[in-house]
Amino acid sequence: MRDKLEKLIAAYAELERKLSDPSVVADQKEYMRLAKEHAHQADLVAAAREYLEALDDIEAAKEMQHETSDPDEKEMLQADIAENESKLPQLEEDIKFMLIPGDPNDEKNTIVEIRSAAGGDEAAIFAGDLYKMYQRFCESKGWKTTVLDASPSEAGGFKSIEFKVEGDKVYSVMKYESGVHRVQRVPKTESQGRIQTSTATVAVLPEAEDIDIHINQSDLRIDTYCASGPGGQCVNTTYSAVRITHLPTNTVVQSQEQRSQIQNREVCMQMLRARLYEMELERQQAELGAERQSQIGHGNRSEKIRTYNQPQDRVTDHRIGFNSTYNGVLLGDQLGTVIDALAAADRAEKLAEAVD
Q1: Which of 16-20, 157-161, 269-273, 281-285 has the lowest mean pLDDT?
Q2: Span 284-288, mean pLDDT?
Q3: Selecting from 1.20.120.1630, 3.30.1490.20, 3.30.70.1660, 3.40.50.2300, what CATH number does the domain 110-210+289-351 have?
Q4: What pTM value is reported for the model?
Q5: What is the CA radius of gyration of the chain?
Q6: Beta 251-255 vs 314-317: how paired, if at all?
Q7: How far apart are CA 220 and CA 269, in angstroms?
Q8: Who has greater pLDDT, 270 or 236?
Q9: Class assignment of domain 217-283?
Q10: Strands 322-324 and 179-185
Q11: What contacts 27, CB < 8 A, 6 or more positions away?
Q12: What is the sign, positive or negative, of the torsion defined by CA atoms of 110, 113, 148, 135?
């Protein structure tokens, strides 16, 4: 392991040398690529240096033990050895995990789609509650959210809503939210107090940049229309709303939330790039069963990644059997605790695979 870590540290030093090379600085694209790699490797190199330093300190202390006859000094050196040896197991685990190739999308912003599924009006209300939950969570992380498109329900909530989340390593956190979310509670519209089960689907897409996916303008059909509010009431007498159809894949995106046609068109292109990028990822990962349907299912009540049970004040994430409280997750600030548990389980699984 020492040889591998020493080579890694040497490669990092070479990377730092390149970043100070005037010819690299002049090439902004290459400079940004190397700077991103430098930042990505920083924690791993720091852990590697700490690990090697601990090994060197242990070796030096053992040599000094052989050279001294002072009992007090021997005892002090043994304490140093024990302290450094206690660091090694955790450092080894951290290094092994950081050596596992990461998800290249983890650094990206995301586009989140929430759609009501089984349950009629109550499902739409639940979709609205999920959106509010994510809004609060993103605010707590210092992330920016922007609604890209929304289809409100007359009963409240949304038939569907799509929004963009921008911030530090957004996708690395939000990706765990993809799937079918199920709620069990007494709907506001229920007069006899009966508990109803409803579902909403959540899809988290990494935002695709121009360099990720190339779109031919000739493959697009662009339609404009008047934006409208709930119930069809006209809220815009100009053709500012935009619908874009990607003809080769028959993918349709639309936006009417922005004030101008130009802004809505740019939003549509962001959503289209994200969807086409996701399609390409699915194609590449099809052999591993990572198709989109495995993310969000069909929206049936029997399909779920998480259940929000209001009468029992309990939220259960079925992927890891983790429990929290209904009010704490859906109405409060405990969503981060659930996601942290999912990330820890994912980390443990990757470490196990690496050992295998």
Answers
A1: 281-285
A2: 56
A3: 3.30.70.1660
A4: 0.66
A5: 26
A6: unpaired
A7: 10
A8: 270
A9: alpha beta
A10: unpaired
A11: none
A12: negative
